[in-house]
Amino acid sequence: MSLFERDTEIYRNRDALREDYQPAQLVGRDEEIQMYQAALQPVINGEQPNNVFLYGKTGVGKTAATRYLLSHLEEDASEYDDIDLRLTFLNCDGLTSSYQIATRLVNELRDETNQISTTGYPRATVYEMLWDDLDDLGGTNLIVLDEVDHVEDDSILYQLPRARANNNLSDAKIGIIGISNDFSFRDDLSPKVKSSLCEQEIHFPAYDASDLQKILEQRAAVAFHDDVLDDAVIPLCAAYGAKDAGDARQSIDLLMKAGDLAREEAETTTVAETHVEAGRHDLERGRIEEGISGLTQHGHLVLYSLLTLHLQDETPVRSRDVRPRYTNFAQRAGRDPLVPRRMRDHLAELAMLGLVSVTERNEGRRGGTYREYTLDMDIELILSALDEVLDDVGIHDSIQEHLLDEDVTDENTSLAQFQ
Ligand SMILES: Nc1ncnc2c1ncn2[C@@H]1O[C@H](COP(=O)(O)OP(=O)(O)OP(=O)(O)O)[C@@H](O)[C@H]1O
Question: Has 207 been labeled as part of a binding site?
């Protein structure tokens, strides 16, 4: 028997569940698409395009809507001889300065033999090159800046949308499409950048369970063979997606994970609720491990402190009551404890990762407000991701019974006498 054999019982086209798949239609986004389409209409009329700013949480269809509309725009524009449309997509992840954006744009517009170095020029020189290149090419240029919030200085976000108004361009028409999932970015833009970059703002709200269900049904019809999914599978993936963040990407990933788990089982020919539950657990574990591994050692120490307090039924807890435990753990790990404010920053970071939830409380008539923290995640998952800090600090009594791996307990001393 061959080592690899094609298994096609579950999936008809698994690639339809991948990130790079472009659905033929976007489900449940009619209003946003209509506004977006209206903002792009001047291109077909041969007019100067609007600058558009799309914002909304992650996985709500901003990029998908952009790709969908721009591919139609490109196709429809090709019907008109007097329209020369050029689309440039730039993901700003990793491009933090206006300088980097400008050099990337110049290189996108030039052929391979004529690229410029990404360092060494004054910024104004790169801008000059950009305007010259755009004017030489002429036509209508739509530049998509996805994840535009990664750009830390706003020079280019002012210069690009205003290039014609500032007489930097005469022949070329230019329109910017900025996309962001960072709400504070939009709020923090200076008024002059906001007024030019955000000529037409379109908000993409999070999806609810019924939106997600329709999106998943559309995708599943392409990805899976008929009658492979148990009836409960799609509603369950949609319900989890809506509960988490209304993020279509997460729901599609969960459906794919469930399909993969079903496929791995030799005798299974259908995807069931149990595969969704197991898939969710696996994805959650991956997400937590990734989140925790990105934290500094102090972040780990704060999380470990909170975990032990949680297991001793002492949560929700104020940061000042986390502090003695954290200080003790830091000392045991041979680190100087951070000042209270820095320690609180770590609590806030844990909350941002979804590991910890925060409740604001009032101290009565005269007092101010304060925050209480509680652990919001499966204990076993957190423990498995905190391996290293357990080695550095030792095993607290409260977690003994949760440690499945006895070797760890043998090697470490109990901490009970310290707290
Ligand atoms: N309305 C929809 N209909 C069909 N598929 C959708 C819809 N909305 C989102 N998707 C799919 O969900 C996934 C995530 O969407 P997309 O990449 O557009 O999100 P986004 O809002 O750009 O997120 P981010 O801010 O993280 O880039 C993609 O696979 C996309 O095809």
Answer: yes
**CB of 141 within 8 A of CB of 70?**
no
Return the CATH number at 374.
Answer: 1.10.10.10
Residue to substitute in 90, 148, 249 for testing ligand 1 pocket (most ligand atoms within 8 angstroms of CB): 249
**How far apart are alpha carbons 408 and 78 in whole angstroms?**
66
Domain boundaries, position 287: 207-291
**Distance in angstroms (rounded) separating the CA atoms of residues 44 and 249:** 32
Residue 349 DSSP one-character state: H
Specify the 3-state DSSP secondary structure of 106.
helix
CA distance 406 to 388: 16
Amino acid identity for residue 98 in this structure? S
What's the predicted TM-score (pTM) here?
A: 0.79
Domain boundary among 234, 264, 291: 291
Q: Tell whether residue 60 is among the known ligand binding residues.
A: yes
User: Which token pair is 168?
Assistant: 């930097």
Residue to substitute in 68, 93, 177, 215 for testing ligand 1 pocket (most ligand atoms within 8 angstroms of CB): 215
Mean pLDDT for each consecutive 10-residue tract of the chain (419 residues)? 73 94 91 95 93 93 95 95 94 91 94 89 93 94 94 90 90 94 85 87 94 96 95 96 89 96 88 96 87 92 96 95 96 95 93 87 78 88 88 91 58 49
Residue 28 Cβ inside 6 Å of ligand 1? The answer reads: yes
